[in-house]
Amino acid sequence: MKIYGVGAAEGIGIGIAKVVKEQSVEVVKRTVSDTEAEVVNFTEILELTKAETEEMSKSLERNASAKEAEILVGHIMLMSDPMLIDEMVNLIKNEKVCAEYAVEGVCNQYAAVFASMDDELMQQRAADMRDIKNRLIKKILGLESNDLSTLPHGSILVAKDLTPSMTAGLNPENVFGIVTEFGGKTSHSAILARALEIPAVVGLSDLPQDIKDNTEILLDGESGEVIILPTEDEKKEYTGKKKKYDENKEFLKKYLTLPSVSKDGKKVEIAGNIGSPEDVKKVIENGGEGIGLF
């Protein structure tokens, strides 16, 4: 079965599906009598989540770069915003509501503001805010989050969508590809997939909802093609495509540091196209001398 989405991170992925389903969380408005204890619990969980995000940021810096780690640093900054925290605390104290209800209300409000902005980069903050909201609420309710760092070697991650924190936790040595129903090429998750050099196809509106773990999947992160339960001929074709892609990637590396000069001695500037400022690092790594199209 062939389906097509948006190629978000180039490369050829060949592996078996590992389906990640986020646990839906229903937040119920509860009245609390001891608001001080509720605020203390909320504050402790907030600090714990910030500490975990700091560790994730350090791990991402090791696996990708400091530039990509800044996405999670942005999460820490949002969780450290006095105005944001005060709104949640005041809601708990003044309305005598539970912490998870306060978090959902305030985070949804901020996410809506970010989503309504014209700046595409600011719009990404809406996804960041929803990511933070879900992580905080799960911790408050004592629910487990998916640990994607333990995915086995050869995994093709299949999900409805990926949050930045989920993508940052991936081990690029084990994950051979990412396939999601939602998402776009400029999302923070797509940026992180490119930084981790994990082939990714997003925006697959036709992605079957009944894909099982260990289903064979092939994907082309440039064309956006995904093949589920491939035939032997298709597996052979993709094995050849991957071999060619990997060989070409290695072949081109030897030219990265050489000057761009034509046969008649004229200097030529090699510029790269980027979808966001975060892509500048890759242009530099690949020998780019400027930006051709933004």
TrEMBL record:
It comes from Lachnoanaerobaculum saburreum F0468. Residues 253-294 form the PEP-utilising enzyme C-terminal domain. PANTHER family: PHOSPHOENOLPYRUVATE-PROTEIN PHOSPHOTRANSFERASE. Residues 5-125 form the Phosphotransferase system enzyme I N-terminal domain. It holds the Pfam family PEP-utilisers_N. Belongs to the PEP-utilizing enzyme family. GO terms for biological process: phosphoenolpyruvate-dependent sugar phosphotransferase system. This is Phosphoenolpyruvate-protein phosphotransferase. Coiled coil: none annotated. Residues 152-224 form the PEP-utilising enzyme mobile domain. GO terms for molecular function: kinase activity; metal ion binding. Gene3D superfamilies: Phosphoenolpyruvate-binding domains (3.20.20.60), Phosphohistidine domain (3.50.30.10), PtsI, HPr-binding domain (1.10.274.10). Its cofactor is Mg(2+). Keywords: Kinase, Magnesium, Metal-binding, Pyruvate, Transferase.
